[in-house]
Amino acid sequence: MSGNPRRIVMALGAVLAGLAIASPVAAHPLGNFTVNRAISIVIGPSGIALDYVTDMAEIPAYAALEAMDSDHDGTASASERDAFAATTCAAAAEGISLQVDGNALRLQRDGEPALSFPPGAGGLETLRLVCPIVATLVEGGEEHRLAVADRADDGHLGWHEVVIGSGEGVRITGSNAPEESPSRLLTAYPTQSLETPLDVRSGDATWRLAAGQQASPIDSQPTVGAPRSTANDPLAALAVGDGSLPGLLLGLLLAVGLGALHAISPGHGKTLVAAYLIGSRGTLRQAAGLGLTVAVTHTAGVFLLGMVMLAAGEFLVPERVIGWLSAASGLLVVALGIGLVIRAITSRAPGDHQHRGHDHADAPTDAHADAHAHGEAHPHSHAPRSGGTPLRARNVIALGLAGGMVPSASALIVLLVAVSTGQLLLGLTLIVAFGVGMAAVLGGLAVATTWLRGSVSLGRRVSEHRWMGLLAGWLPLASGLAVAGAGAALAISAVTRLA
Predict the structure, then answer these.
(1) Distance CA 418, CA 413 (A)
(2) Is pLDDT above 80 for 240?
(3) Nearest to 121 by CA among 27, 35, 23
(4) Would you give the distance in Å from CA 495 to the centre of its chain?
(5) Better pLDDT: 95 or 457
(6) Which pLDDT score is estimated for 146?
(7) Among the listed residues 400, 378, 94, the one whose alpha carbon sits nearest the alpha carbon of residue 263
(8) Going by DSSP bridges, is the β-strand pair 389-390/280-281 parallel, antiparallel, or unpaired?
(9) What pLDDT sits at residue 143?
(10) In sequence order, what are the residues at sequence separation of 6 or more whose Cβ sits closer than 8 angstroms to the Cβ of residue 129?
(11) Which of 275, 317, 406, 472 is the least buried, fewest Cβ under 10 Å from its Cβ?
(12) At what angle do helices 409-421 and 424-455 cross, to 10 degrees?
């Protein structure tokens, strides 16, 4: 290769940055797994108009489209989509409890559902369905009370809201629900609420008619709403590349970089990896093996979840599976931390640290042996052992499983895009490259931690400084407690989200 290497590297970086910026792919702002719902009520003089709005992200929408295709020809026809909309709206009406003055109202469909498919990540579609429903009111009385609740629960995570407004001639006198939708009926989710989506499934309101108001038909046209605002998913953008060799190579390089960025983001056990390796005596080879385990585990997890979803997407709730995997990952980390604590306590037992200066668990250095051979004075610290406990292969595998067993939504989207477009090899290659990027970060952290830990030369320095010996002696125990505590927090957080 000719030319200035620095200019070549800068040019390559510019191309990669341009590819990342110039390939925006719409992705659902609340996450690729979510199913979001809103109930919008308008109270009229003689009836109630209710719009039941469903907004599915890419992965549940993919499963819904598969379910629509009743003749299995690979495409959901107009008639199949209409049948899906009608069936879904009928089920939604059955799941709604609507009462006025303590009396249950009979809900019935009014007009045709509005079904649309806004674009999503990697060329996949999302799904938006608005079901128009009406209920007739019985005249009489001055003030009335309405109570509505959505009793349906399919296990999907997502946004839920209830909006209660009034039509002409009706005045709401009290309500615990807003009159304006905070998400504009699932088209513009508030940025500050994306991490903790709204979860309101019921509402109450009291109202009265304006003086002299006459009964009139209620407007029950479905509220379609504006197009939903979206985010970008750069990894999914790579799955719809131009197919050229340079584009493929750049895409793979970018996928590795995105995997590394994904591993750098909060979570993924970076702190746990460092804490565990500080509390145990791992080798550089074992640290590198940790990265390989992360890559294999993450890639296999994406493949397995994707295959299960393709085979049973209508019945599977992927985010629940990922939630339980997160809980299992946390419990595995707890077990690793407890193991560190037990070994640290055992190594500090009275019979284990007799004459610590002559501990031959590790091979002595030549200088150490020579000093004893010539009877030279040799300081012996009776501080607890500073080296931690040997790191076993099974511990490396368990730590790698904890770091890679939870598949990322972006990688799963790439797999679904690959299946949909017939570019399975490209999708699998991108997922592997993404896993390599994750492994590079976690494995690199493990190698750096192990190297730094060994380069401190604690043996001689601990002997010279009693306080350093005490600190180093307590380090494995503190590391074990930190690992176990962090794993417990991870497991509790995952179970809480599933509840």
Answers:
(1) 9
(2) no
(3) 27
(4) 13
(5) 95
(6) 94
(7) 400
(8) parallel
(9) 87
(10) 53, 54, 85, 88, 89, 113, 114, 115, 116
(11) 317
(12) 150
What's residue 424's pLDDT?
Answer: 80
C-alpha distances (whole Å) from 286 to each of 270, 291, 292, 297, 392 are 16, 9, 10, 16, 9
Using alpha carbons, select from 191, 203, 218 the residue that is nearest to residue 137.
Answer: 218
353 DSSP assignment: S
Decide which of 130 and 489 is more confident: 130
C-alpha 118/C-alpha 230 separation (Å) is 10
Residue 267 gets the label, from left (phi > 0), alpha (psi -120 to 50) or beta, of: left
Identify which has the larger pLDDT, 47 or 5.
Answer: 47
Residue with tokens 């649309």: 116
Structure tokens at 472: 């180093």
pLDDT exceeds cutoff 60 at 363: no
Q: What is the DSSP letter of 351?
A: G
Percentage of residues in the chain having pLDDT higher than 70: 68
Please calculate the CA angle 21-418-303 and round it to the nearest 5 degrees.
Answer: 110
114 sits in the region (left: phi over 0; alpha: psi -120 to 50; else beta) called: beta
Paired strand residues for 492: none
Residue 453 CA to residue 361 CA, distance in Å, equals: 18
**What is the number of H-type helices and E-type strands within the chain?**
14, 15
- 348 vs 126: which has the higher pLDDT: 126
Q: What is the pTM of this model?
A: 0.65
Q: Would you state the pLDDT for residue 356?
A: 42
Contact 426, 248 (CB under 8 A): yes
**Does residue 217 have a pLDDT over 50?**
no
- Across the chain, mean pLDDT equals 74
Long-range contacts from 87-93, C-beta under 8 angstroms, 24+ separation: 88/54, 88/113, 88/129, 88/131, 89/52, 89/113, 89/129, 89/131, 89/133, 91/152, 92/52, 92/54, 92/131, 92/133, 92/152, 93/52, 93/131, 93/133
Q: Report the distance separating Cα 106 and Cα 103, nearest Å.
A: 10
Only one residue has tokens 């997890």, namely: 301
